[in-house]
Write a structure and sequence with these properties.
It catalyses: a 5,6-dihydrouridine in tRNA + NADP(+) = a uridine in tRNA + NADPH + H(+); a 5,6-dihydrouridine in tRNA + NAD(+) = a uridine in tRNA + NADH + H(+). This protein is α/β, with parallel strands linked by helices and 305 residues long. The chain has 16 helices and nine strands. The chain folds into two domains: 227 residues, Aldolase class I (TIM Barrel, Alpha-Beta Barrel); 62 residues. It starts with 6 loop residues before the first strand and ends with a helix.
Length: 305
């Protein structure tokens, strides 16, 4: 596996769609990953699932992340979308109750042997690399061991990304970088550090602790997708409101191209992130939330000073 940089965009449901991934890639993300996609929806040819799997011309490499439980469906789904990506990624970290109820996402950390079997089975049938994204454990009674990671490696896993929080830690609890460091020191396959990296200064800290080569950025990229540029330039930067305004216009234009008139509803959540911390953000967000069409959004963005 070859990456254009060592800084990857994390898959995030409802956020890392095709337009946003293009922006992240333009800023230097070395790997982009689809939103999580159900193996059932792929198997039953759900058009929405295949839309989520579409890549931009500049997304090289590109991973499609699958979630589910049934091994046979995992194989069939992977075979259907293998030609659409460079890497098949298994979601074993999503903490959302709806996903857990389907025995998918972080639930697989409660049935580690089953997860190992999924990896082994995929490696038998598909030619593309298989990666796994995990949390460091399901709960305090189910923390991943080195033997588990070794089993993943021996099963044929080509890369493992570790979000070093427990399932019930969601996205705001402390991150155990020492857990990643131990795994990184014991595995031969690439280990990607994930969780809490929101600046170049933070990256230096995480790199020093973990000794990892690769890093995945999630929540911070939603507010400042240019974080990838900062990491590559090895310095943190601040962007003025004019820059953010142009970024918003670029992003929204991409969304209009992808979603048509529905774009104005889908863009709202991104606008809130971009404007966080800026004066008049509350008023601007109120106007965006109450917009009736795409032209109104464009007018609002253009009025930002």
């Amino acid at each position: 596996m070859n990456f254009s940089s060592n800084y990857f965009l994390a898959p995030m449901a409802s956020y890392t769609d095709k337009p946003f991934r293009k922006i992240a890639k333009d800023y230097g993300a070395g790997l982009t990953v689809s939103e999580l996609i159900s193996i059932n929806s792929i198997y039953y040819n759900n058009p929405k699932a295949f839309a989520l799997a579409k890549r931009n011309y500049n997304e090289i490499p590109f991973a499609i992340q699958l979630f589910g439980y049934d091994i046979d469906l995992f194989i069939k789904a992977a075979l259907k979308i293998e030609s659409m990506c460079d890497i098949i990624d298994i979601n074993a970290g999503c903490p959302v109750p709806k996903v857990l109820k389907a025995k998918a996402g972080a639930y697989l950390l409660k049935e580690k042997k089953h997860l190992i079997s999924i990896v082994e089975s995929l490696k038998k049938y598909i030619k593309k690399p298989v990666s796994v994204k995990v949390r460091m454990g399901f709960d305090n009674d189910n923390i991943n061991t080195i033997d588990f990671y070794k089993d993943l490696e021996n099963a044929g896993c080509d890369m493992v990304t570790i979000h070093a929080r427990l399932r019930n830690g969601f996205y705001n609890s402390s991150v155990d970088y020492e857990h990643i460091a131990l795994v990184c020191s014991r595995l031969k396959i690439p280990v990607v550090a994930n969780g809490g990296i929101d600046s170049y200064e933070k990256l230096k800290e995480v790199k020093k602790i973990t000794n990892c080569k690769y890093f995945m950025i999630g929540q911070a990229a939603l507010k400042k997708p240019y974080i990838f540029e900062d990491l590559l330039n090895k310095k943190d930067s601040s962007r003025n409101i004019e820059y953010i305004k142009n970024l918003m216009l670029n992003h929204f234009t991409l969304m209009i191209e992808e979603y048509g008139e529905n774009a104005h509803k889908l863009f709202r959540k991104f606008a809130h992130r971009y404007l966080s911390g800026y004066k008049n953000a509350k008023l601007i967000n109120f106007c965006i939330n109450n917009s009736k069409n795409s032209q109104e959004i464009l007018n609002i963005i253009n009025s930002i000073k």
